[in-house]
Amino acid sequence: MEPTAPNAPVQVIKESDVPLEPLAPNLKVARAITATGLTELGGGWSVNEGSGGLENWTLQYDEVLFVIRGQLDIETGDTRATAKTGEAIVIKRGTTVTYRGRAGSKIFYVLYPRDWAQT
Known about the structure:
Strand content: over 45%
Largest sheet: 6 strands, antiparallel
Radius of gyration: 15 Å
Structural class: mainly beta
Distance between the termini: 40 Å
Order of helices and strands: EEHEEEEEEEE
Number of strands: 10
Helix content: under 10%
């Protein structure tokens, strides 16, 4: 079988497809799903190079975060959801959250819609 073509309806994405870019102190993201432009989904990988995260962010999209390695805490108001390796967190659009990842954590995330900033 031949590998998928760039415009094929099915594609394989790799961490190396898109470089990690700084999003917040100690947090980098690689928007590999978004970069394909294949679907209305966005997402990719995020890596915490140190403890930290993104504070008081109001989601304009639905999001799923799967912890590949480490731990991720999502705080909203006075509640906290904690996911460890092999677990996922689902967040509803319109929720204001603080993301807190442990140093060395790696997350795969998917959001919808990918063009949320343009809506």
